[in-house]
Amino acid sequence: MSSTITMTGPLEPRSGWTADRCSMARTLDVVRNRASFLILREAFYGATRFEEFVSQTGLSEPVCAARLRELTDVGILRREPYQEPGQRTRHAYLLTEQGSELLPVLVALMQWGDRWAQDGLGAPVEFHHAGCGGRVGLELRCSGGHAVGGEELQLAVGPQRQQRS
Amino acid sequence: MSSTITMTGPLEPRSGWTADRCSMARTLDVVRNRASFLILREAFYGATRFEEFVSQTGLSEPVCAARLRELTDVGILRREPYQEPGQRTRHAYLLTEQGSELLPVLVALMQWGDRWAQDGLGAPVEFHHAGCGGRVGLELRCSGGHAVGGEELQLAVGPQRQQRS
DNA sequence: AGACTGGCTTAGCTCGTTCTTAGTCAGCTA
DNA sequence: TAGCTGACTAAGAACGAGCTAAGCCAGTCT
Fold first, then answer.
1. Chain segment B114-156, per-residue pLDDT in tens
2. What does pTM read for this prediction?
């Protein structure tokens, strides 16, 4: 099977360990529900105000409020007071560094969906490089600078865990 | 806001269009539920038999059966008959090309979780390049070969859509 | 023939997410 | 002072995804 990942060291065989600290699962816990994801997408698309999130995600206000609170509690968004002239102070929801780093997740989802979930119609929207205008995509690369194919991947235990016992 | 994406052409302003064909949302529809994701992860980790999926995901048999069926219906997995000596014919669940291409999504989830959802403990497991042993990660790159930062992204309408009106 | 095993299916329950509808509250405008 | 608006909160119903417990079926082993 070219598409499966080779296990190395104590990870072999798979039945010998449990993925109880799986980073993928933990990230998905944060973005899993449709509402959180939609809010996140609109945050990247520039939404900051409660009303913008409600109208552009199409979510109901209660759900939107609950998820915005959740995302700020987790540290993906932060609330910042702002004031428009002649208006009272309100709160803007802004992406934190932690939130901004979810961009590759969204791009990866988009890339797959463009190819496999658009009935051959192609990408509805595309990312381009502001500098050169070239189309932007995600690539797997190693620290040696090589482009890496899925069949060239090996799974190894992380640095912290190797030490204790 | 350095972390938000610049809109171009008809995508400006955001309130002028709806994301009703959003590729990200469509992909997430496929991987959204925890069960589907766990099954997919184990498929990449090399699981092929029903019992392997059940024991390694920790899911109940009914859910596992339902999700395996769903994933094969969608085209992410395929069922292939196999026979071990002295055993009757059974079915293996294998990743299709469509399924294999979800790898970047998993890697993106893993990368974020490693940094933000492990309480500073670092990555439990890591990907390495089978060729050179270097650590593998995802990078945003444009067709011109430049590494692209989140703040250098522009969103444009896809090629298919620009044509019709 | 009868028991065993892997791979499921069925039934019934719980819990979480979302929806709709209906408020509340703070501060600006008239 | 009374109303308006943006940003929420509260309550209740609907739905879906997960669980457990139980059963079924095909083929092998004894």
1. 999 998 888 999 999 998 999 999 999 999 989 999 889 999 9
2. 0.91
Contacts of B100 (CB under 8 A, 6+ apart): A2, A3, A150
Query: What is the pLDDT at residue B51?
Result: 93
Q: Which of residues 82-121 of B touch A (CB under 8 A)?
A: 94-95, 98-118, 121
Place B103 in a pLDDT band, splitting at 50, 70 and 90: very high
Query: Which residue type is seen at A26?
Result: R
Q: Which residue has the tokens 């190693």?
A: A142
Residue B136 near residue A148, CB atoms below 8 Å: yes
Tell me the pairing of strands A89-95 and A77-83: antiparallel
Flag residues 21-40 of B with CB < 7 Å from strand D: 33-36
E strands along chain B, which residues? 6-7, 77-83, 89-95, 125-129, 136-142, 153-157
Q: Dig out the tokens for B31 from the structure.
A: 């991987």
Q: Identify whether the C-beta of residue A19 lies closer than 8 Å to the C-beta of residue A165.
A: no
DSSP A65-122: HHHHHHHHHHTSEEEEEEE-TTS-EEEEEEE-HHHHTTHHHHHHHHHHHHHHSSTT--
